[in-house]
């Protein structure tokens, strides 16, 4: 059996949103490194339509303002923004109680607090940008194993019936939390089951969303409605994240679309008028997953492979983006200092710098779910007071807004000036 061999500086397992963004950032800021991406789905220029037409059932991701700044630095935002709906207002409320707080972009001198973009459009935008780089793609293919060797790692790849071996200085695992590669390589993930499921769908309402995102905490669990559709005109389409128990999920999935809308109406209320349509429903169990030690010599975990959060707070992908830029910063520094990019000192700096951000974000996201999931009257009264307090206290409200916008960390949330300067040198 023949084995094909390939050498690369960096191998990325997974070419989804996290892996593709990392590849683009490396091509932009550390072009000295050769980068290879291994992706399970086939890639082709034919998959990049000249005229993109969003689907009503397209799944989407909430992008914080800090993430928009990262995409700006990658020269990706001008194209990506063509189909990114702005979030200009956030309304957080406790269903059936008086507590509520409101955030507005104009209070922070921003055009938006965040955006909602279709996952497919983000993927296409990344593919277009990567077509003009030297990043090498192996697709369809899958990383099946890894062995430490002198100076890096040897990665076993299966491409159809053909095995490959790739010698790399560093392997980055960006294929999500359910591929099994993380566990196969011995990384220990800590998982807390929320005992709930997320139902994801796009819905239409009789009233316009007014570019407002609604975070609604109910006695049965949290839910979110995010503005979706046209970036320029406030329409009637929203992206729904609905938290349901196992039995509730089963009941909802058995209903007709009209009955689903009625159930949603009863749970959410009438702030957007009547629910008139619900699209294709996707669902998955909700778990908080973290990996305490996401690096080892020659290997690093990023994105959902390193941490997966509850989706209602909208923090997961934004946290992943900040982690990717932290990793790129460390690779840039390693190249400048003549250090091996897979050295534990290099990857350990990434872990140390990103740790504070993910710990704070996990705590922020998890505490929201746990506090607002308590039905007891004293707890409910206390959180109502807290929501009203956020609305009345400028300092607390600014802190909450920074968390929502992804700009609340102590370290820079976008590439540093030094990194941007290096990129400029290579562009000349």
TrEMBL record:
<comment type="similarity">
    <text>Belongs to the UbiH/COQ6 family.</text>
</comment>
<dbReference type="Pfam" id="PF01494">
    <property type="entry name" value="FAD_binding_3"/>
</dbReference>
<feature type="region of interest" description="Disordered">
    <location>
        <begin position="406"/>
        <end position="428"/>
    </location>
</feature>
<keyword id="KW-0503">Monooxygenase</keyword>
<dbReference type="InterPro" id="IPR010971">
    <property type="entry name" value="UbiH/COQ6"/>
</dbReference>
<dbReference type="InterPro" id="IPR036188">
    <property type="entry name" value="FAD/NAD-bd_sf"/>
</dbReference>
<keyword id="KW-0274">FAD</keyword>
<dbReference type="InterPro" id="IPR002938">
    <property type="entry name" value="FAD-bd"/>
</dbReference>
<feature type="domain" description="FAD-binding">
    <location>
        <begin position="7"/>
        <end position="331"/>
    </location>
</feature>
<keyword id="KW-0560">Oxidoreductase</keyword>
<dbReference type="InterPro" id="IPR051205">
    <property type="entry name" value="UbiH/COQ6_monooxygenase"/>
</dbReference>
<keyword id="KW-0285">Flavoprotein</keyword>
<comment type="pathway">
    <text>Cofactor biosynthesis; ubiquinone biosynthesis.</text>
</comment>
<protein>
    <submittedName>
        <fullName>2-octaprenyl-6-methoxyphenyl hydroxylase</fullName>
        <ecNumber>1.14.13.-</ecNumber>
    </submittedName>
</protein>
<dbReference type="GO" id="GO:0016491">
    <property type="term" value="F:oxidoreductase activity"/>
</dbReference>
């Amino acid at each position: 059996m023949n084995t094909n061999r390939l050498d690369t500086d960096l191998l990325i397992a997974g070419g989804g949103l996290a892996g593709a963004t990392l590849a683009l950032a490396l091509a932009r800021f550390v072009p000295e490194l050769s980068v290879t991406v291994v992706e399970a789905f086939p890639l082709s220029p034919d998959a990049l339509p000249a005229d993109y037409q969003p689907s009503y059932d397209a799944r989407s991701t909430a992008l914080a303002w800090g993430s928009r700044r990262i995409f700006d630095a990658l020269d990706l935002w001008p194209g990506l923004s063509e189909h990114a709906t702005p979030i200009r207002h956030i309304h957080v409320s406790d269903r059936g109680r008086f507590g509520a707080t409101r955030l507005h972009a104009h209070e922070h001198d921003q055009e938006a607090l965040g955006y909602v973009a279709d996952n497919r459009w983000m993927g296409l935008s990344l593919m277009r940008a990567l077509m003009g780089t030297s990043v090498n793609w192996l697709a369809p293919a899958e990383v099946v194993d890894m062995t430490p060797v002198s100076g890096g790692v040897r990665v076993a790849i299966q491409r159809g019936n053909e095995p490959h071996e790739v010698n790399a200085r560093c392997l980055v695992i960006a294929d999500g939390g359910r591929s099994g590669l993380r566990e196969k390589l011995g990384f220990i993930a800590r998982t807390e089951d929320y005992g709930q499921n997320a139902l994801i769908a796009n819905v239409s309402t009789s009233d316009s969303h007014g570019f407002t995102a609604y975070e609604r905490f109910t006695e049965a669990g949290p839910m979110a409605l995010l503005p979706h559709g046209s970036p320029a005109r406030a329409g009637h389409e929203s992206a729904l994240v609905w938290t349901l128990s196992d039995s509730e999920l089963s009941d909802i999935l058995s209903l007709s679309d009209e009955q689903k809308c009625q159930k949603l109406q009863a749970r959410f209320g009438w702030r957007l008028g009547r629910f008139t349509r619900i699209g294709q429903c996707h669902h998955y169990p909700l778990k908080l997953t973290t990996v305490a030690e996401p690096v080892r010599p020659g290997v690093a975990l990023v994105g959902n492979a390193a941490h997966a959060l509850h989706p209602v707070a909208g923090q997961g992908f934004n946290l992943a983006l900040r982690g990717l830029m932290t990793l790129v910063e460390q690779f840039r520094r390693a190249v400048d200092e003549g250090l091996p990019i897979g050295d534990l000192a290099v990857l350990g700096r990434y872990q140390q710098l990103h740790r504070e951000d993910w710990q704070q974000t996990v705590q922020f996201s998890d505490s929201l779910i746990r506090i607002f999931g308590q039905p007891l009257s004293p707890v409910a009264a206390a959180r109502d007071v807290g929501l009203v307090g956020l609305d009345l206290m400028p300092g607390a409200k600014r802190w909450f807004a920074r968390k929502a916008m992804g700009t609340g960390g102590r370290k820079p949330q976008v590439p540093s000036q030094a990194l941007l300067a290096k990129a400029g040198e290579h562009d000349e």
